Amino acid sequence: MSCSIDRYHKEGLHEECGVFGVLSDGSLNPAYACYNGLLALQHRGQESCGIAVSDEGVIDYHKNMGLVSEVFGNDTLDSLNGQMGIAHVRYSTAGGSVLENAQPLVMRYVKGTIAVAHNGNLTNAVEIRRELEQRGAIFQTTIDSEVICYLIARARLHVHSVEEAVIEAMHRIEGAYSLLVMSPRKIIAARDPHGFRPLCIGKHNGSVVVASESAALDACGAEFVRDVEPGEIIVIDGEGADGYRSIRPDFPDKKQAICIFEYIYFARSDSAIDGVSVYEARKQAGRILARTCPVEADMVIGVPESGIDAAIGYAEESGIPYEKAIVKNAYIGRTFIKPSQKERMKSVRIKLNPIADRVRGKRVVMIDDSIVRGTTVDRIVTMLREAGAKEVHMRISSPPFMWPCYYGTDIPSRGELIAVNHSIEEITKLSGADSLAYLPVDSLHEMIGCAPIGFCEGCFTGKYPAPTTQLTLEGKERGGMYDACQGTDEA
Length: 491
Prior knowledge:
alpha+beta, seven-stranded antiparallel beta sheet, 20 helices, 25 strands, 30% helix, disordered N terminus
C-alpha cells in the first residue's frame, strides 16, 4: 500500500497501539473514562481510535481515523451509554491504515456480540488465517486481531464462557498480545505468556480499569493495583470483593520477555511497567552511556521527547550541565502530510528547532533513543551545526538495531537498518557528528534493574523468545504481515 503520510521524524519507529477498558460501578462514565484513557495513550497510536460500550448487554461503538480529540466530541461520547467499555488507539504494523482496520473490532456471531481491542502482533496469524479461510471464513479486515475474534467465536460454540474461549484461543496464537474482549456482561483482559506488551489493572472506588500503561489509569483518576502477569487472564465482571478474578492457564516453556523498547521509547515517562519506572530506566540508560562512552563537552541535550530523560541521566553522571537546546513544536502531531521529497527533507525543522544562543560555540552531547534507517540523525546534526555548535557528539540510549521485530514494532527488514550495513565509524561520518556511541547490549539488564520478568532484545541480538513462521519472516521482509497471502504490501 502506498501512502502519502510520512510518519513521525523518528525514522518510522512506532509501536502498534494501546488499549483501555473499564467496568463502572457508577463512579465513572465509561465513555468519558475511555476517552481520557485514550488521550493518555495517544503516543502509542495516532492513525485511528475507537470506543465500544455495553449498555445492559447491547454493544454500541464509534471509531474513525484520526487522533482521539478529532474522532470524539461531547455529542459522540454522550451517545455512548453503558456500564462498561473498551477502547483502542492504533498505529498499523500489520494491515493498512484504513477505517476497516480501526479497533475495537465489533463482531456479531451465533452467541451474540463481542468487541475486541488488541495491542501486539501475532507471529502465526498468516497460517491461522489461511486455515480459517479454507474452512469458509470471510475476513473483513487485514489485521491479525480479526484472527483472534474468529478463534474466540469458534471456541465459544463448545465452551461455556467467553473466558474459556479466550483461553482456547490463547493456546492457538503465538506472538505478542495485550488483549481486551468485551462481551455483553463482562470484560476479559489477557496478556500473552511472554508478556511482550504491558497491561495493568486499576481501581476507582468500585470501578475496575485496565490499560496498556499506568499513566492511563491516572488520567481517569484510577489507582494502580498491579500489572497483569504474562499469561494471565483477568475476568472483570463486578463479582467478588475486587470486582474481578484471575485465571492462570498453563503455558509451558514460555520465556517471559517484555519488549525492552517499552522502557527505551514507547511508554510514557510517567508510567511504570512491571514494577519499573520508565523515567528511571531512561535516566539509568543515560548514566550508563556517561560511564561507558564519556566525552569532553560543554552541555548535554536531549532530542525531544524520548531523548530527554536519558540526557538528564547522562548529565547527572558526567557532571556536564544539561540544557534545553532543541524545542519541539507541540502543535504538529506524530503524522503530517509532506507531498514531496523536498518537503520531507524540511520536516525536522518543522518539528524540531534549536535554540541557537544555547549551542553557539559549544561542544554538545546530543542524546537520542535510537537510529533506525539513519535518515534523520544527519538532519538533526546539521541543524545543530547551522545553529553554531562547535562539536556534536551523538549518544544513543539503545544498542544498534541489527534485526527486525515480529511482535508489534515496525522495525524494518535487515536491509533497511543502517547498523547492519555500516560500521559505527561509517554512521558517524554519514551523520556528520564528531563521535557516536550506543548503549552496550550487555547493559540492558542494568538499565531496567529489578524487573520481575525478563525482556526481549531480539531487535538487537536476533535472539527471539517466541517462534516466527516462514510466512511471517517473508511478510516482514516484504514490508507487510499479509502480503504473503493477500498481495498487500503495507508501507
